[in-house]
Design a protein that fits this description.
Elements: H1 31-47, H2 53-72, H3 79-89, H4 94-108, E1 110-113, H5 138-141, E2 149-152, H6 157-162, E3 164-168, H7 175-190, E4 194-197, H8 203-213, E5 218-221, H9 235-244, E6 246-249, H10 259-272, E7 276-278, H11 286-296, E8 301-303, H12 314-322, E9 327-328, H13 332-339, H14 362-369, E10 377-378, H15 379-386, H16 390-402, E11 406-409, E12 412-415
Parallel strand pairs: 3-4, 3-7, 4-5, 5-6, 7-8, 8-9
Antiparallel strand pairs: 1-2, 2-6, 10-12, 11-12
Helix pairs in contact: 1-2, 1-4, 7-8, 7-13, 8-9, 10-11, 14-15, 14-16, 15-16
Length: 424
């Protein structure tokens, strides 16, 4: 099969190995052709940002090598892309840049993953249908699946993402948000799920650390080169993730963490996972953009509620108001109920602690309520106050005594002392 179909056409269910008919075994193509395809994909992500829909379409039509040749010859289908390509070409030869990137990645211990590889995460193909209505920004209107990924870490990318949940939120998180994020990630990792986030300060870092503490897998999707993960204050955390999980990026080694790239990156977090959880977010938060992208491609979107008095909860609560399909969650079990197997990952219903009096029938409850908080009351008085016959009152009092809720005192009954009663 030629490279023309290697950019994620078609769609498969989330977590499936790949869409039907989209397999690209290495043995089907000469090594030279595969190398040329890989170099061309790297060059294309340097010529234009990785989410460029026009470039993706050209790769579908002509293959990565053909698309690169067309763009270098000025054949971009639109003026904006032609200008972008011209500006990049003035800075260097795309294939030389790609070759240098491959060498830098090799020195870093990173690898390039393309749709020709077994570890390609096919659910990202759903990004071909991502369109955010009502937005005028190009990053919202023109989105496309990735052409390739740079990966640092020993685990296979597709397998690691097959059972994964994104946990995202505010950088300036509150103590509440950090606690919830850590606990959620710990619980998910403990249950064998990969925790995916963006490596930022606040909620992202707390999620990564929660998964690491549980001894589970975590993936950080970066908006820059793998050799300069951002923010630099989390360098030690990124090293831990690379040692036990994965660092992933669409940008070549050495690429800067430019502001627009974070929104481009967010679409991968939304598409590569089974669902996304928003812990805290202000009214204008990049984390809510991840959730909008998840909703746009029909991924489960979940929100942890916060204090209504906190500005860090405004964005999260507004997402719940605007999108009825978004679900409120408060525990790892509820998250897995949304993203797990149908009927296989149901969260237990939320109940208060069991009390002995919950077992009582209506008449027994009325008899118990007829007893005074202090002191003793006779059977006839209890029967009158509870509205039951004297014989019924005696039977119910015997049951309540057996349960430890009342005790006989002379000719009457009294409530058992709190220290000896069998209820909270």
């Amino acid at each position: 099969m030629t490279a023309g179909g290697a950019a994620g056409e078609g769609s498969g269910a989330v977590g499936s190995p790949e869409p039907a008919g989209m397999r690209h075994p290495t043995g089907d193509r000469p090594a030279a052709a595969l190398d040329a395809d890989r170099l061309a994909r790297v060059a294309l992500t340097w010529i234009a940002e990785p989410d460029n829909r026009s470039v993706f379409s050209l790769v579908k039509q002509h293959g990565a090598v053909g698309a690169l040749t067309l763009l270098r010859e000025g054949g971009a289908p639109e003026e904006a892309l032609r200008q972008t390509v011209a500006a990049r070409l003035s800075a260097g030869d795309p294939l030389a840049v790609a070759a240098e990137a491959m060498e830098r990645a090799d020195r870093l211990g990173a690898r390039l993953v393309t749709p020709a590889d077994d570890e390609w995460p096919w659910p990202v193909a759903d990004l071909r249908r991502l369109v955010l209505a009502g937005s005028t920004r190009r990053v919202d209107r023109e989105t496309a699946p990735p052409l390739c990924f740079w990966v640092r870490g020993g685990h296979p990318l597709a397998e690691t993402l097959d059972r994964s949940v994104a946990v995202v939120g505010a950088r300036a998180a509150t103590g509440y948000g950090l606690h919830v994020s850590t606990e959620l990630a710990y619980g998910l990792a403990e249950r064998g799920w990969t925790v995916v986030s963006g490596g930022a300060f606040g909620i992202d870092a707390a999620a990564h650390r929660g998964a690491l503490t549980a001894g589970g897998l975590t993936v950080s999707v970066l908006a820059c080169g793998l050799d300069r993960p951002y923010p630099t204050g989390n360098t030690a955390l990124f090293d831990r993730i690379a040692d036990t999980g994965l660092l992933v990026s669409e940008w070549i080694p050495g690429a800067d963490p430019l502001r627009p790239r974070f929104l481009i990156r967010n679409r991968v977090i939304a598409a590569a996972t089974r669902g996304s959880v928003l812990v805290e977010a202000t009214a204008r938060s990049g984390a809510t953009q991840t959730m909008h992208r998840a909703l746009a491609i029909a991924r489960p979107a979940m929100v942890v509620p916060g204090p209504v008095t906190s500005t860090m909860s405004v964005g999260a609560h507004e997402l719940l108001r605007q999108h009825p399909e978004a679900r409120l969650v408060i525990s790892p079990a509820q998250v897995l109920e949304e993203v797990g197997r149908i009927g296989g990952d149901l969260a237990p219903p939320v109940r208060g602690p069991a009390r002995v009096r919950d077992q009582l029938d209506d008449e027994s409850t009325m008899v118990l309520e007829a007893l005074p908080r202090r002191g003793v009351r006779g059977v006839d008085d209890i029967a009158a106050r509870s509205g039951v016959g004297a014989r019924t009152a005696l039977r119910k009092l015997a049951l309540l005594e057996e349960l430890g809720l009342v005790s006989r005192r002379g000719d009457g009954y009294a409530l058992s002392p709190p220290l000896t009663r069998q209820e909270p």
